[in-house]
Specification:
Blueprint lengths: L11 H11 L2 H6 L7 E6 L4 H12 L4 E5 L8 H12 L3 E5 L6 E4 L2 E4 L6 H19 L5 E3 L7 H8 L6 E3 L2
Helix pairs in contact: 1-3, 5-6
Length: 171
């Protein structure tokens, strides 16, 4: 059984779900076949909400997966050091949540970074995001979750062109 948590406000929603899950920890512990996956997104740097989220998950002994909007952290060595320190504890992994998480309207059509934006746009944004995360973390990340859960056939193409990617998160 998988439980997913989606957050728009830097872990606030996930922290609420985590607290609810902790109250049922005896039930989860009684069935060792169940797995909880906490998937939080929209990380743009450490703040109090992320600190609270990680404290709650660690107190509950739950590993978490955090999606990074990479243009917000690119080239920032202090954020990179913070991310590396979290990973070093063994209970956090970071994944690619896109370069800029942009969404816009063209000809009355909603377009996002990975939906309707075109093959070259998606190719460029995925490459920049993957490179930025590799620089920040010192290794490739294996998962992508697109902003607004938007994706199209071009997204499939660019994922298949990116050997490091092995997981695609969507709702």
């Amino acid at each position: 059984q998988l439980m997913f948590c989606f957050s728009k406000i830097a872990g606030t929603v996930c922290a609420g779900l985590l607290v609810a899950m902790m109250t049922e920890s005896a039930v989860v512990a009684a069935d060792s076949n169940k797995v909880a996956i906490i998937k939080a997104d929209d990380f743009q740097g450490p703040n109090q909400a992320w600190t609270n989220f990680l404290q709650a998950s660690r107190s509950a002994g739950i590993k978490v997966s955090i999606g990074v909007i990479v243009d917000a952290i690119a080239g920032n060595s202090s954020i990179a050091a913070w991310m590396q320190a979290q990973e070093a504890q063994g209970d956090v992994e970071f994944w690619d949540h896109g370069w800029d998480h942009a969404q816009w309207t063209t000809n009355s059509q909603t377009v996002s970074e990975f939906q309707g934006s075109g093959l070259q746009h998606q190719r460029d944004h995925l490459a920049m995001a993957q490179a930025g995360l590799k620089t920040a973390l010192g290794h490739d990340v294996i998962a992508l979750g697109t902003g607004y859960n938007g994706f199209d056939s071009d997204t499939a193409t660019v994922i298949n062109e990116t050997p490091a990617l092995r997981l695609f998160f969507t709702h």
